[in-house]
Amino acid sequence: MAVIYKNEVVYASGKNEILSFESDFELTPDKKSNINIILSNAFANIREITFAGDGHINDFKLIFPSECKYKKILNEYTRNEYSDPWFYFYTNSGVVKIGRRKRVINIDWSNFPDPVTAEELFPEEKCTKGLHNIHADSLFTCKRYVEKILKEGNRSE
Predict the structure, then answer these.
(1) Are 61 and 131 found together in one domain?
(2) CA nearest 89: which of 43, 34, 44, 142?
(3) pTM summary value
(4) 131-151 pLDDT, tens per residue?
(5) 8 and 45 co-located in one domain
(6) On the chain, which terminus has fewer CB atoms closer than 10 Å, C or N?
(7) Beta strand 49-51 with 104-108: parallel, antiparallel or unpaired?
(8) Looking at residue 73, what is its pLDDT?
(9) What are phi and psi of 27, to 5 degrees?
(10) d(Cα 20, Cα 143) in Å, to the nearest integer?
């Protein structure tokens, strides 16, 4: 059974719409079909609903520019082949590694040619930061971080 957490997002991929729930919502099979119906009524031409926690690659593909190639890698938190995979996204700025770690998303740009530090890029953010990585608490935040990393995360550009 999955849970959609408060402020977590749901992508309605036919329209690239992003929805958010105001409280935790337990996603049982019967409720999932009800949500699909509700969302289908709310947005015309929705082909697929991707819930956060299911098929993260679909979530991540909406965050990165459409021309980016990606590669599935072993989950670097659990190092377990049965855990949700992480991904390399190959961008014009460099390679970004991204994946779920418990309730956060780890974003790592240490493979950029000359990466800017997380503290330089995100001095005001009160979250876990490494030298060249940051944790996002939602897909909304993740998208904002990735956009800034792709724009300003490389000293050589």
Answers:
(1) yes
(2) 142
(3) 0.66
(4) 999 999 988 899 999 999 999
(5) yes
(6) N
(7) unpaired
(8) 87
(9) -100, 90
(10) 14
